[in-house]
Design brief:
Layout: H1 2-30, H2 39-42, E1 55-60, H3 63-75, E2 80-85, H4 92-106, E3 110-116, H5 127-135, E4 139-144, E5 162-166, E6 170-174, H6 180-183, E7 192-193, E8 196-201, H7 211-223, E9 228-229, H8 235-259, E10 275-276, E11 279-284, H9 295-306, E12 310-314, H10 322-325, E13 336-342, H11 350-366, E14 369-373, E15 378-379, E16 383-386, E17 390-394, H12 400-405, E18 409-414, H13 416-430, H14 442-454
Parallel strand pairs: 2-3, 3-4, 7-15, 12-13, 13-14
Antiparallel strand pairs: 1-8, 1-10, 2-5, 4-9, 5-6, 6-8, 11-18, 12-16, 16-17, 17-18
Helix pairs in contact: 3-4, 4-8, 5-8, 11-14
Length: about 450
């Protein structure tokens, strides 16, 4: 009888593993996205204007400047903070981040924090941080598509956006997650070079013409979507733990700010550093499960097709699989294409690197120049520039996951001033050369070679 129970248990486990594999992998190979022709997204006219618009942009490349900008926005918030983030990593940056949100909430600022349901850090030993946030009357926390193995097709529906909206006046977006490797110069491991944009409306009477109103609408859609859930932990039982954690985070924030006063409570004249724009529009992927319509990918293709001289594309991962290339059929461009991505030496994402190497010869033949980053750490920004006039910046990688699976957000900016500055920043990265940097280890090369074989048929998930 005991042997029969063990045999039945094994069969159930095997069946469940097959069920998860079919629902999270095989289903995505079969399911095809709807091919929606959206004239608003595919016509460049809607993204341009002949006169200056209300929105201005500050480009934040340096790690420390990006950290200070986030701090400053939260410290100076007067009424509301809305946050959508893919990943938060344990460390000093996340402690300061959560401590700053709690401090803002203490002065009656309403905080709405939306995190991806799988890649947040509010679990395990950080569960008490979740209790601290949830216990506060001015903070609401929700999670987009939490882990649910009973619905394996939801595992690939990830929230990949990265933006903060403050007081309906500022939006900060880009490629950075919350983690020490994105901000700290003292970080002992491989650092990540990234890019943020701080956008603000210089004319409050033109709010509806500002991209800020579009971000507000998009956040509302994510926050109230049926895929978004609120934790149901018993706060009555956890209130003491949460209160203790709140006091600990606030105390730690005060200690850090006392040790480094030049980074906190600053008076920054943001308009002094701003670049003008004619128009900024927000474009996003659909909020759907399974393979989505690749609206952002289609927009990049449309701008590329219209370009006459030059297309600059920077992405940490470039994996143009067959499904992505199907949208390029009968598409042509007169422009020269320049790509910037991570090298074998710099890329920390072994799966993405294995996918990139599969298509590296194809990318090289289709580009004027292919630059592979040779500087310190790795690059993580996602930026696309067309004829030094139209720019796209945000969370979208040139891979199938960003194209068809994840929520993504990008701003389309009509501004020669912004495009030229972004192009200059990309050029500096392209020609970075850390000659003392060690070459990739034999173990990394061997693992990448093995991964190239294992994931060869599965690049639709990369």
């Amino acid at each position: 009888m005991l042997l029969k129970k063990k045999s039945l248990r094994r069969k159930i486990i095997v069946f469940f593993i097959l069920y998860v594999a079919l629902g999270s992998v095989a289903l995505f190979l079969i399911h095809k996205p709807e091919n929606v022709e959206n004239p608003h997204l595919l016509s460049s006219t809607d993204f341009k204007d002949d006169k200056l618009g209300p929105d201005k942009v500050i480009i934040l490349e340096e790690r420390l400047n990006s950290a200070i900008a986030r701090l400053n926005l939260i410290e100076n918030a007067k009424s509301s903070i809305k946050i959508a983030y893919y990943a938060v990593h344990d460390g000093l940056a996340s402690d300061i981040f959560y401590g700053s949100l709690l401090k803002a909430a203490e002065r009656e600022v309403k905080v709405e924090l939306l995190l991806d349901g799988m890649f947040h850090n509010l679990k395990g030993k950080e569960k008490t941080t979740l209790y601290a946030l949830m216990n506060h009357p001015n903070i609401a926390v929700r999670f987009y598509e939490p882990l649910n193995l009973l619905k394996p097709w939801t595992l690939n529906n990830r929230l990949h956006d990265k933006f903060i909206i403050v007081d309906e006046s500022y939006v900060l977006l880009g490629g950075r997650n919350i983690g020490d490797k994105y901000y700290l110069e003292s970080y002992s491991k491989a650092k990540v070079e990234d890019r943020d944009l701080l956008i603000f409306n210089s004319d409050t009477s033109s709010y509806q013409e500002s991209v800020l109103s579009q971000f507000e609408t998009y956040f509302f859609q994510l926050w109230n979507h049926r895929y978004t859930k609120q934790k149901r932990d018993s706060l009555f039982a956890k209130s003491r733990e949460g209160e203790n954690k709140k006091e600990k985070l606030l105390k730690y924030l005060n200690e850090i700010s006392a040790q480094h006063p030049t980074y906190f409570n600053l008076s920054i004249d943001w308009p002094k550093y701003a670049l003008t724009t004619n128009k900024i529009e927000l474009i996003t992927n659909p909020i759907k499960r399974l393979n989505k319509e690749p609206l952002i990918l289609q927009q990049i293709i449309a701008f590329s097709e219209e370009a006459k001289e030059q297309v600059l594309l920077q992405s940490p991962y470039i994996i143009p699989n067959r499904q992505m290339r199907s949208y390029l059929e009968n598409k042509n461009s007169e422009a020269d294409f320049y790509y910037l991505t991570n090298s074998v030496n710099s890329s920390p994402n072994y799966f993405a690197l294995a996918g990139y190497l599969k298509y590296r010869p194809l990318i090289a033949t289709q580009s004027k120049l292919l630059f592979e980053y040779q500087g310190e750490g790795s690059i993580h920004a996602k930026t696309y520039i067309f004829d030094r006039k139209i720019s796209m910046v945000g969370s979208f990688n040139l891979d199938a996951r960003s194209s068809f699976l994840s929520t993504e957000s990008m701003v389309v900016i009509d501004s020669k001033e912004v495009a030229n500055q972004l192009a200059l920043n990309m050029k500096k990265l392209a020609f970075s050369d850390n000659r003392e940097k060690k070459q990739p280890s034999w173990a990394k090369l061997a693992l990448i070679s093995l991964l190239r074989l294992l994931i060869y048929p599965f690049d639709f998930l990369l």
